[in-house]
Amino acid sequence: MPRFAANLTHLWPDLPFLDRFDAAGEAGFKAVEVLFPYDFPAGDIQQALRRNALEMILINAPPPNYTGGDRGFSAIAGREERFAHDMRRATRFAQALGVSFIHVMAGVAQGDTARATMVENLKRACDLAPKGLTLTLEPLCPASAPGYFLNNFDLAAGIIEEVGADNLALQWDSYHAQEITGDALASFAALRPMIRHIQIGDAPDRGPPGAGTVDFATLFRAIDDSGYDGWVSAEYTPGGPTGKTLDWMRLG
């Protein structure tokens, strides 16, 4: 059975942020992730993790740019200094929370210049990343992120191969995989050697597993059979009380 984690940006949206950690613990989760936790003091998050015996596994970069202007996304030419600044801040936050993965976002861009910019930014970021921290790339489907540069798996795989760093890997999401390829199961099988973090949501509406077109019972068996021993994080829109959407955990 996969080890399930809860994405607290998406789950229990009706609760105050710090109360979501308590809800996850009460539901039986042992790990959580938060896409952009930067609006909350790291100390408050640490306390919420400790009182629920939870591991924080992933955050996103870049953090918000409180000084105004665009954020330094990794594929945006001319924003390399901003990207480096963002990564330093995200890394400090990750270390404070004991996070294993930072999802590095690409931003809205296109073309060869964007690809080359992203490769060079990632090379530097991987060189500077502290031991034990892995950077991840996640393709996002156009329906949820129009214009996003990293919008297919071939592009992500090619960038990971070109960067050639042990601490850069693929973050695979069943919702995006189903929307991009039409077959999440085949996508997982083809990309498994690059995958170090998994997220799940159903397609086409990013609803709870079992609400759409992905065969999660088969997917969970495939994850187990593949030897993947990392976390499988629930990142979906509950559409109602989160506690009533957790039956999918019995499929694992």
Structure write-up:
It comes from Pseudosulfitobacter pseudonitzschiae. GO terms for molecular function: hydroxypyruvate isomerase activity. One of its GO terms (biological process) is glyoxylate metabolic process. The chain is an alpha/beta fold and about 250 residues long. It has one domain: TIM Barrel (Alpha-Beta Barrel), CATH 3.20.20. Helix content is about 35%, strand content about 15%. It has helices spanning about 15-25, 40-50, 80-95, 110-130, 155-165, 175-180, 185-190, 215-225, and strands at about 5, 30-35, 55-60, 100-105, 135, 170-175, 195-200, 230-235. It has an eight-stranded parallel beta barrel with strand order 1-2-3-4-5-6-7-8, surrounded by four helices. Helix 3 packs across helix 4 (about 110-130). It is globular and about 45 Å long. The termini are close together. The model has no long low-confidence stretch (mean pLDDT about 95).
Q: What is the CATH class designation?
A: Alpha Beta
Number of strands: 8
**What structural class is derived from the secondary structure elements?**
alpha/beta
Global shape = globular
Q: Mean pLDDT across all residues, rounded? A: 96
Organism: Pseudosulfitobacter pseudonitzschiae
Family: Belongs to the hyi family.
InterPro entries: HyI-like, Sugar_Epim/Isomerase, Xyl_isomerase-like_sf, Xyl_isomerase-like_TIM-brl
Protein name: Putative hydroxypyruvate isomerase YgbM
